[in-house]
Design goal:
- Strands 5-4-3-11-12 form a five-stranded parallel β-sheet, with helices on both faces.
- It has 15 helices and 16 strands.
- By secondary structure, it is α/β, with parallel strands linked by helices.
- Helix content is 42%, strand content 17%.
- The protein has three domains: 267 residues, HUPs (Rossmann fold, 3-Layer(aba) Sandwich), CATH 3.40.50.620; 114 residues, no CATH class; 47 residues.
- Strand 11, helix 7 and strand 12 form a beta-alpha-beta unit.
- Bound molecules: zinc ion.
């Protein structure tokens, strides 16, 4: 299969280190509020990645982290801690906030039928390992101490600018206004922050004789080291992670462990909502529950996401979501048809895989599905690949309902339209309708 390679900037053959242990790491959510559909679009793309790898015969070993500590509200090392912000907003402790939003995140994650990662890692379970990593960076001479923490000296890591093709001079000029005067270079970042006198920061641990907490890039380097080991095969995240978060992960890990951090980096683009950025002030932050309230299943949204490509920017609108909902109903009715007719298909697994094997091009696969006849076995395979639960959400009819369809047909033929209509209504209660065709009645799902 081919994947986009962030290092070489082209789509190239994916070469695994060990086909029986494809090591994948996904930067997960900061658990201080509900994840919105923009957040979930990325996990849907990575679910397709995992399913595609598995169906190619690889064994996937994937770790997803949950940031429950120390993620400041800006990419810089200043600003409010997101968890603290959530706690103040809701009058809860930071630990309660983390638990609440982890539960909500995992509920939605499962509602979208996203493949369960091998390991879901909470950042706060890795504080000791974080400290060991900071010590290692100190010992190797990559850090310096300021009054508010321990900073990574990016000038010591020669390749720092390479990954994101950063222009460090420009960065320096742009940062002048808010340049922390104790920082040696504008791109330097905290690996450990000290709790300031009077600062309200509930999560804190002792290190270097002071109380503090990890810098927010640190946990990913730590968790990858502890759970997977460098180098990993694929690291995924959003394009916003490229210039700072992933650049800093590489700097920390490669300096500390003298190994490449990851062979492939997959970054997904953002989605906009009705042409605008997802933002609280615009009131366009939708959660899966918001979509449910408007009559859409999480699967309608998942299908909408898979109609596009992870590297393109997408615009979400309810009009398009409605089209995706109709497409899913159409597919479910084709599943219903495949229960009723023995359909010979031209569709083969290799054909389906060939689309997604080209840098996860699910859109082309979906167009192919629209244009070709599929058997029940084909739909089963499509479910394995796209995870849309088409069979589970579109089961075959029970014998009782099949009898009702027969009885309705008999009544209709005998001219007993009152009985036929009563049976039609009964079927409608089960969200089933019957089409009278030349070849006899065909049932379909109503919704
Ligand atoms: Zn990360």
């Amino acid at each position: 299969m081919k994947l986009y390679n962030q290092i070489t900037k082209n789509v190239a053959e994916f070469v695994p280190q060990d086909p029986n242990n494809i090591k994948i790491y996904t930067c997960g959510p900061t658990v201080y509020s509900y994840a919105h559909i923009g957040n979930f679009s990325s996990y849907i793309y990575w679910d397709l990645l995992v399913r595609t790898l598995s169906l190619n015969g690889y064994q996937v070993n994937r770790v997803l982290n949950l940031t429950d500590v120390g993620h400041l509200s800006s990419d810089a090392d200043e600003g409010e801690d997101k968890l603290e912000k959530g706690a103040k907003r809701e009058g809860k402790t930071v630990w309660e906030i983390a638990d609440k939003y982890i539960t909500a995140f995992l509920k939605d994650f499962r509602a979208l039928n996203l493949t369960e990662p091998t390991k879901i890692a909470r950042a706060t379970d890795y504080i000791e390992a974080d400290i060991a990593l900071v010590k290692k960076l100190i010992d190797k001479g990559y850090t310096y101490e300021t009054s508010d923490g321990i900073y990574y000296d990016t000038s010591k890591f020669e390749k720092y600018a390479d990954f994101a093709r950063l222009n460090l001079e420009k960065l320096k000029a742009g940062a002048r206004v808010e340049f922390n005067s104790e920082k040696r270079n504008a791109s330097d970042f905290a690996v450990w922050k000290y709790v300031k006198p009077g600062e309200d920061h509930a999560m804190q641990w002792e290190f270097n004789g002071k109380m503090g907490y990890p810098g927010w890039h640190l946990e990913c380097s730590t968790i990858i080291h502890e759970e997977l080991g460098e180098p990993i095969d694929i690291h995924t995240g959003g394009i916003d992670h490229i210039p700072i978060h992933h650049t800093n992960e590489i700097a920390q890990s490669e300096a500390a462990f003298d190994e490449k951090l990851s062979h492939y980096w997959l970054h997904c683009n953002f989605i906009t909502i009705d042409g605008q950025k997802v933002s609280k002030s615009l009131g366009n932050i939708y959660t899966l529950d918001d979509l449910r309230e408007k009559g859409y299943s999480p699967y309608d949204f998942k299908l909408w996401v898979l109609q596009g490509h992870y590297r393109s920017d997408r615009n979400f609108s309810f009009e398009d979501l409605n089209a995706a909902k109709n497409r899913r109903l159409n597919w479910r009715n084709r599943v219903a048809e495949s229960y009723q007719k023995d359909l010979s298909s031209s569709f083969i697994k290799e054909t389906a895989l060939s689309f997604v094997n080209n840098d996860l091009n699910s859109a082309e696969l979906m167009a192919y599905i629209d244009d070709n006849t599929l058997s029940l076995d084909d739909w089963r395979f499509i479910d394995q690949l796209l995870g849309l639960d088409l069979l589970k959400t579109s089961p075959d009819l029970t014998d009782e309902l099949k009898e009702q369809i027969k009885a309705r047909e008999n009544a209709r033929r005998a001219g007993d339209y009152a009985t036929a209509d009563a049976l039609r209504e009964k079927l409608a209660e089960n969200k089933i309708t019957v089409l009278d065709t030349e070849n006899g009645p065909i049932w379909q799902y109503l919704a």
